[in-house]
Amino acid sequence: MIRTPLRPLARILSAREKGENPDAIERENLRLRHEAMRDRMRHRAEGRLFVLALCFVCAYSVIGVRMGLLAAGEPSEVQVASTDSEIVAQRANIVDRNGRILATNLSTHSLYAQTRDLVDPERAAHELSLIFPDLDEAELLKDFTGSRKFLWIKKKLSPEQMQLVHDIGEPGLLFGPREMRLYPNGQLAAHILGGASFGREGVHSAEVIGTAGVEKQFDAWLRDPANKGAPLQLSIDLTVQATSREILEAGMKLMNAKGASSVLMDVHTGEILSMISLPDFDPNDRPSPLLKGDPGDSPLFNRAVQGVYELGSVFKIFTAAQAMDLGLVNPDTIIDANAPMRWGKFSIKEFRNKNYGKLSVTDVIVNSSNVGTAKMALAIGAERQQSFLDRLGFLKATDLEMVEAPTGKPLLPPRWTEISTITVSYGHGISSSPVHLAAGYASLLNGGTKVTPTLLRRSAPQVGERVVSERVSKEARKMLRAVVSSGTASFGDVPGYAVGGKTGTADKPKPNGGYYSDKVIATFASVFPAHDPKYVLIVTLDEPVETSGSTPRRTAGWTSVPVAAEIIERTAPLLGLRPAPEPGAEVAVVRTSN
């Protein structure tokens, strides 16, 4: 460092020439030097203080942030490091075809006890029994004072219950965060979704696994992190499902039936837009299976998929369609339907012992003639009949995406004899589910190509094997339309929607053989619009009795048909179908005055 001299020679000589005191110059320079040294020392001290203050600010900021995180986080016990894999408590949502939530996850807490840390076990047991009435105080106290060190008390808690337990103030009662499966629509679509429960459990999470329905069928997919949280989209329309269930439940009560089911299906894509089985249940609180009695009476039983019934005369259109496709008959072919018809030791009769005489094929379907149908079946033969029903899917369980689908396997004749061919032709001697029937009607009436029912959203029609020709498919639709306009299903006519369909009333079989005389399965299989089919609707009532008249009426025309008509009238607008005049129908001209 170069210092300025205190007595610069030039200034000293100049001051002597002017007669000034040279010592004043030295004092001035010394003062300036001292001031510069003081300024440097002050700046150095201020810098050190600034660095020290900055260190304090950073330290206190880190401490404050950490304290905030601890305050906002969930309290947890210190745990020993474990090599076990972490339970991933995450499951994809299930949505309907429009993206509306059917099943999702809800964050909640579980309650468990570390019995070693309980201060007052007797008080804790008493307070918990007051909060949870289903818990036994004596049993809790026995567990709290026994040898067990860890005890699950409740797997799921509401926020209110959690606060009440917290207010007990017992350090041995602890909470663990977890996710639970939530079905916000309750009973709606219960049999489709099935339900979920807890599998492998830990204190801080639990594995949610499917127990039935699509939850179990797609369990691995719903838990797969590779899907990045993408929801499982079903073909179900939530609005249509809700409307159909409301009407079906009211119809079941009005017709005094013990159970009911309905299936609404797109005839081209095979998508099931609504599927209902009553009685049903709330998947948020799934009941236990029945331990005695008929399993079919359990609310867990899916009548639409698992229920296999003799569906009766709804099968007659298949016989007529196959006979036409084989060239054996046409819609106007006259068949001798004189009843009763003797076949060996068997007698084939008509409903209420009617005798229709000679009928056209169309009138056989319109009047639901057993004898006329049997005559066509005999011309077809057992082998060709089996092959045709197999192509329609009636000889095996459906491929529907539910774990229950394989249990709905049709019941077939042990030996397909000629009498079996006759009875199967009009829906007896073969038992199938409403989903089978929906798929069969869709395949027959959509132009004649096979469709497979599905619960997944599809964007394009299915292209299946041809079952019948387009001509036969069209003629079958005309016959079904005639059944509604002038036959046994007249209550099924819905103005503007040209409904076609076929009724079926089958006596229920007894467990030990034979049939009940006063218990039936009433079914109406319908298509709309019949001239340009879009949807098939199957409505089945178990043991219905219509009692508005002087005598009880159990046939499908009086029971299931009105219910199906109401469903079509309410749901068709929701499906985007506008009422329209039927092609070829005469338009009446009404003269009015001004």
UniProtKB/TrEMBL annotation:
Segments forming domain Penicillin-binding protein transpeptidase: 262-553
Pfam families for this protein: PBP_dimer, Transpeptidase
Subcellular location, principal: membrane
Record domain Penicillin-binding protein dimerisation: where: 87-223
Cellular compartments annotated: Membrane
Membrane-crossing residue ranges in chain numbering: 49-69
Name of the featured protein: Peptidoglycan D,D-transpeptidase FtsI family protein
Stored PANTHER family: PEPTIDOGLYCAN D,D-TRANSPEPTIDASE, PEPTIDOGLYCAN D,D-TRANSPEPTIDASE FTSI
Lineage of producing organism: Bacteria, Pseudomonadati, Pseudomonadota, Alphaproteobacteria, Rhodobacterales
SUPFAM superfamilies (UniProt xref): beta-lactamase/transpeptidase-like, Penicillin binding protein dimerisation domain
Hydrolase in keyword set: yes
Keywords linked to the UniProt accession: Carboxypeptidase, Hydrolase, Membrane, Protease, Transmembrane, Transmembrane helix
